Here is the input.
Amino acid sequence: MCSRDGVPEMVFQPLPANRIPRRAFLLMPFALAGMIAVWRRPEKGLPDAAENGAGPAVPLVLFSNAGQPLAVQPVRKAVKTDAEWRRELTSEQYAIARLKGTEFAFANRYWNNHDRGVYRCVCCGNAVFRSTEKFDSGTGWPSFTAPIAQENIYTKPDRSLSLERNEVLCRKCDAHLGHVFNDGPPPANLRYCLNSAALRLIAEVR
Here is the structure.
């Protein structure tokens, strides 16, 4: 997922601020339709990240919706049956977060979102990324230079589609969030390329 133009590209080339990719215009009607559907559909509340599940305990950094760390505490992993995940998530969320799917570039909820706040896992409410680390990668997916806390995510090798990639997953519920690449901006040169459907932005109240 998230390779530029479908080809693994390891050189970070940010787009000029005054130029929008042609494919963004081509996909704009689909993006608009998706946004309208999201706005009209009432969203379920997110689970409490501190709520214990049925799995083994893992240390998580709990955050307020303002992005401030509250505590580091052991929380039991959220473990549910496939039927339970299907019931709790939309079809798109389930396909992305539980079946490791990929949404369309430039036609997803957060790729061009500039609101400040905390991005939480849509499955369990765990804080995973923050708007202050979000940047415009030119890929059409929400991209970040770092997670909100290393304890709240983990990565593992992904050799699907005959590609060598590192998958990014939620520490609490093992939801598929996206992939991380080594073509981001300095100093870390990391690009966490994520799926909007696996996230929920809790906007900062000003």
